[in-house]
Specification:
The protein is α/β, with parallel strands linked by helices. 46% of the residues lie in helices and 13% in strands. It has helices at 14-21, 37-40, 49-57, 74-85, 91-104, 145-155, 169-175, 185-198, 202-209, 217-246, 254-264, 273-283, 304-314, and strands at residues 62-66, 108-113, 120-124, 128-132, 159-164, 180-184, 213-215, 291-294, 297-300. The strands form two sheets. The chain has a seven-stranded mixed sheet, with helices on both faces. The protein has a two-stranded antiparallel ribbon with strand order 8-9. A hairpin with a 2-residue loop joins strand 8 (291-294) and strand 9.
Length: 325
């Protein structure tokens, strides 16, 4: 027994459909038939089943997976986003640019062309639908929350985001009491800048974007705090490498390494012993190998210049205190 929901009837030429999925040209379905997964997986050139059917029927939605490999520098994307958001004749272009923006933020995103569904679908790191609203006057004055939520439920998504050049105060107030997030283009551009400069993980960005309400300066402040914590964690790693490089032989304990750091740093912002110990554990991990530990203590296995490259390469591994996985 099979149960179906949201069934949509389409009229497709049988010969064209047989060619699409690899059936013999004489094949005729007898009653309800499910196309095998291996045949659907061969539709790589069509991008998706929905897009393939839309091409055959010249109707419906087309799903376009998006990547940002050929988008050029982030400032170019930002300028295009801001221009399209207030151009009433560029709504489709605005949708594509928003999809590219979320791809640039590290998300797996699709642009949904045509149909009466959502505009952008984020598949990971969380399942989110994105409604895109271009406005010539620069802001959305009213928002049909029920329609947005309907699209979210149709896609089986966990959250909904609305992107527009700006929002009227009453829309911002209403967002606080609904299961969606509003974000202005300028704030989306700020996220792109931080992702481009600091390689902020998409999980961290989505954790802020999937909080119901308006995405405003307070959330950017939280993201900046997170970034600063990551910077501090990276500096602690480099300080530990520099301290061991300066030491004459092995350094017995993390406390001893910290005292070397105290002697080197002309700052009151000195890492704690626990922070130094965590840094040494990460650097001594076999997958990193910048520090080795034996019964005599810690020794560095690389120089400071290589250490800088190493810390930069760790990216998603370096976590602020209290965020270690």
């Amino acid at each position: 027994m099979t149960f179906l929901t949201d069934v949509e009837e389409v009229d497709v030429d049988i010969e064209e459909f047989n060619e699409l999925v690899g059936y013999d040209e004489t094949y005729r379905p007898q009653g309800f038939t499910r196309v095998a997964d291996k045949r659907l997986n061969q539709l790589s050139d069509e991008k998706s089943v929905e897009t393939a059917i839309a091409d055959l029927t010249d109707a419906g939605e087309r799903v376009h997976p998006v990547d940002d490999e050929d988008d050029g520098p982030a400032p170019d994307l930002a300028d295009k986003l801001q221009a399209a958001s207030t151009d009433g004749n560029a709504h489709e272009e605005f949708e594509k640019l928003v999809a590219k923006a979320f791809s640039r933020l590290g998300c797996a995103a699709d642009w949904i062309e045509g149909g009466g569904d959502t505009d952008v679908e984020i598949r990971s790191p969380e399942h989110v639908v994105v409604e895109v609203k271009a406005r010539g006057n620069g802001r959305v004055n009213s928002l049909e929350v029920t329609n947005v939520d309907k699209h979210r439920r149709q896609r089986g998504a966990d959250h909904a985001i609305v992107v527009a050049p700006g929002f009227a105060p009453k829309v911002i107030d209403n967002a606080e009491t609904t299961e969606l997030t509003t974000i202005a283009v300028d704030d989306l551009v700020e996220l792109l800048d931080r992702r481009d400069e600091y390689a902020v993980p998409p999980e961290e960005i989505l954790s802020l974007l999937t909080r119901s309400g308006a995405f405003q300066d307070d959330r950017l402040d939280l993201l900046d705090e997170y970034i600063q914590d990551r910077i501090d964690a990276g500096e602690t790693l480099l300080a530990a490498i520099r301290a061991l490089e300066r030491a004459d032989g092995a350094v017995e304990t993390a406390e001893d390494v910290r005292w070397i750091v105290v002697g080197m740093e002309d700052s009151n912002d000195i890492p704690t012993t626990e922070e130094v110990r965590s840094a040494l554990q990460l650097l001594a991990h076999p997958s990193v190998g910048a520090v080795e530990q034996d019964k005599e203590g810690y020794r560095v296995t690389t120089d400071y210049d290589n250490g800088i490259q190493l810390v930069q390469s760790l990216g998603d591994v370096v976590q602020p205190p209290g965020r270690e996985e």
